[in-house]
Fold:
Amino acid sequence: MSPIKRYVGAGSAAVLLAFSLTACGGAPTDASKGDFCDAFNSSEEIFADIDPEAEPADQAGDVTDAYKEFAEKLEEVGTPEGISDDAREGFEIFVEELGDLDEGDVEDYLNDPSKDIAEVSKDDEKKVDEFTEYAGKECGTPEE
Structure:
């Protein structure tokens, strides 16, 4: 198993994500590029109200809720046509793992960012990497 982490824009506090397991695959596969990018880049807005100076115990619930909201938004919109099969699978893993994050694991991570929230297989890690590369190429970052 290999740990993976990705940054998600979180206002002034970038928060690392981690992923594991497999995905459900129920999100639409025909999203417009604009809708997909709006959803993907919505993390900055979703995380904006989290106080980056708060203690991890005080942040954990809000951060967990924000991840879940982000996952719901992505799953509702889905991905555009033309995304590779591996990137689509990476999207599904990404969405499922955000939605499944546990407040205790998030708090542990916030207390010690060197720890992993979860781990994935090398194959799943490659798929999540493909998804994040695809989304970055297609959508840029929220600041762009």
User: Anything to note?
Assistant: Residues 6-139 form one domain.
